[in-house]
Amino acid sequence: MEIESFVQHMLTLADSFDTSDIHILPEESHYAAYYRLHGRMDRQFVLDREEANRLIAYFKFVSNMDVGERRKPQSGSLSYQLKDQIIDLRFSTISNYHAHESLVIRLLKQKNQKDLTMNAFFDHEVKELNRLVSHKSGLILFSGPVDSGKTTTIYQLIKKRLSVEKLQVVTVEDPVEIHEEQFLQTEVNEKAGITYERLLKSSLRHHPDVLIVGEIRDEETAKMVIRGALTGHLMIASIHAKDANGVIPRMMELGISLELLKQTLIGIVFQKLLPLYCPLCIGHCHTFCHNYRHSQKRAVLFEMIMKENLEEVFIQDKPFVAESSVSVKRRFNHLLKKVQLYGYISEKTYQQYLIP
Ligand SMILES: [Zn+2]
Q1: Ligand 1 center–CA 278 separation, angstroms
Q2: Which of 24, 71, 220, 274 is an S-S bond match for 103, by CB 3.0 to 4.6 Å?
Q3: Ligand 1 centre from 288 Cα, in Å?
Q4: CA-closest candidate to residue 264, choices 235, 243, 238
């Protein structure tokens, strides 16, 4: 195996599939390389241990990691020339208890306009989202699993708003996933001492109209996001939670009172990206099938808590929206059932994406 030509082949293939990451993982007696395709891990190559070790060592070398260090987790990055384009690659290594290293490569490429089109099941939520992001100030919290298209949704909404009015938009991300010329995008760089907190603080001093925060990860970032909303900015942030109802309790866990949320929070958006049922593939649409285009093999299902439903939370002084509330028809599981009954997704996908 000639390393450099294999690397070129592996990355070209990954790029043509539009995959977001490549996982090179140790298995019982060998290694396997998986691509994450439309939310699933797809096995692409089997490598013997020696080949995999050489491949991992190669990537560690070119991304300025310590090649000799095989036990401690490391991370690195590289801009890679792939034919006529440059893609940014992010690497992270970790070892299992047998000291077999695994490597994850994230591919960050300039996504074109087409890919940014929001592929949503229902118009109702898209209209509500457009209304929500037209606020001058306040806090909007997005939640959903990794690779559920949150960044795409947020970017799409703000870009639409920018097409009718001039605004200063700043983003704080780790890393920047979608390049967007109209935004001032900033990125965490721990090695250079540019931490999340520092970036957030300096971004707020920039007085943007809209500040997009990649992720609220701790008490400090939660506080800063609230401060931004209180001082007249539109703050849009992601936070980890199991469903829309889990967002307020999560913020409270991070030390934010219900009272402060009452003053700032204007909407909660939860989303998942579901694989569409393909009649040709009789299930998820395969990579090589042309029934759906690459970017349209999945669609977004939203659940939103805003206006009267949000007020209900604050009036009753409890962090949940009651199941009996009028909005039940727009709750995630209800809409999920609906898209299954319409035949957009399979029964299996329904079971898989149902929120317990
Ligand atoms: Zn198909």
Answers
A1: 5
A2: 24
A3: 8
A4: 235
